[in-house]
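Name: Proton channel OTOP3
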Amino acid sequence: MASQTAEAETTEAASTYDQADMPTNHTGLPCPPKQKSWLARHFSLLLRRDRQAQKAGQLFSGLLALNVVFLGGAFICSMIFNNVAVTLGDVWILLAALKVLSLSWLLYYVVGTTRKPHAVLYRDPHAGPIWVRGSLVLFGSCTICLNAFRMGYDVSHIHCKSEVELIFPIIEIIFMSVQTWVLWRRCKDCVQVQTNLTRCGLMLTLATNLLLWVLAVTNDSMHREIEAELDALMEKFSGNETNTCMCLNATVCEVFRKGYLMLYPFSTEYCLICCAVLFVMWKNVGRRLAAHSGAHPNRPPFRLHGVIFGPLLGLLALVAGVCVFVLFQIEASGPEIGRQYFTLYYAYYVVVLPTMSLACLAGTAIHGLEERELDTLKNPTRSLDVVLLMGAALGQMGIAYFSIVAIVATRPHELLNQLILAYSLLLILQHITQNLFIIEGLHRRPLWEPVLPDADVMGKQDAELPRRGSLRELGQDLRRASQAYIHSYSHLNWKRRVLKEISLFLILCNITLWMMPAFGIHPEFENGLEKDFYGYRTWFTIVNFGLPLGVFYRMHSVGGLVEVYLGA
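Structure predicted for Proton channel OTOP3:
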């Protein structure tokens, strides 16, 4: 997650060195800089060439990924709009080729690149936090199980299907197993050798995962096949024969069918997490960190610090959510879900969401009353966290806006539709207020971190101020000031206590709202209102685009809220 630890690039160190050594005259004004030596000029030239080579490598690898995504997107769009010329099998062949190429590079990266001398001199302490890697393993395992269910379903229909179709799930299982293992072990690497090859390999793998996500969002062939088989089964029971491919063993097929439908959202979620991790690794290629940079050396452990009401309210919301989730899942296992269970499901959200919004507004107001400084240091990890938080929020907000249009245009006066309308409006409000609270908290300087100025700012101040001593004395003054600042706020005043209560309450609520769509049947697709209004394929694409982003948003929010809690 986003951290406030100061990191120094080699170029920044050179700039600070030049500015710090600038002489001053007796009036306190800076004198013209001295003529640089041959060694300093040569070193500056090498740094400029290194930066230019790094930018050229990033540009080329980015263009490679862009072209691969456009090619795959053209194949997928052609499959959707002209299924005769470009079939699903053609798309699978293209993706299988990309998986094989990406798999070959992943194995070479582990066996070849990382074992070269001075290959990985630095490891980014902020990349790949434990919750990201845990989610990667969890969703990767579920995606592997999804492909196993798909293979079992295809084998049970082998009498009317091609044996070649079994190859594609096997390739995907191998690719995802190796990818999960490599990302778990190597997500913190800052590679210093074969940088251009590494950037291109990372971008190729990222583009492959992105295309897998696009295909999972738009391809509903398996769902249509399952629905057609269920309809044919009902026709058979009524005495009418059909030409639909039927399963050889109904009991086994039922297990494969339910397992596939339940695990399907995990594949899209897994692809999104892999894209985020691969992008961070791509940004870290060729990056040089300071020798003293570490993973929060002064960071306090996660403790409750006497907070009571936040955990109690959060546990109450968690228990109620688990009860509603279990009741809805039991009802969903039957042939049809009663409307009262939809009412119960949406009523729970209508109670929880406004409470979370009020808590976020109160926390944002308290942030404005705090006397802590804003952290203005450049932090690429925190910037990426903010972008992911804002981007992932678009998933559920998009579904909510589509639901609002469908309800207002059809039957807005029914009780269930009114609950869905209130749920959609409150969901949008909750996402906006929570983003404001988390982003504001991430940009506050934690009390456990020393207040160190940026390298460029420190250099300018040292050049402009009269001579008061050496840089070592200035650093000691800053250290004493930061220790006094931490000591003055070491006790839990009411603002810090309320922030911790709010953060813990929101952490438990987001865990609950993550669990319900991640592991259960989705009411957005099962209530039938939006599906009838927009059509099956359109609503299928909207839901499969928005729900994985919503699950990712809840997970990412938990990580951000933990940072806010520790920094309060």
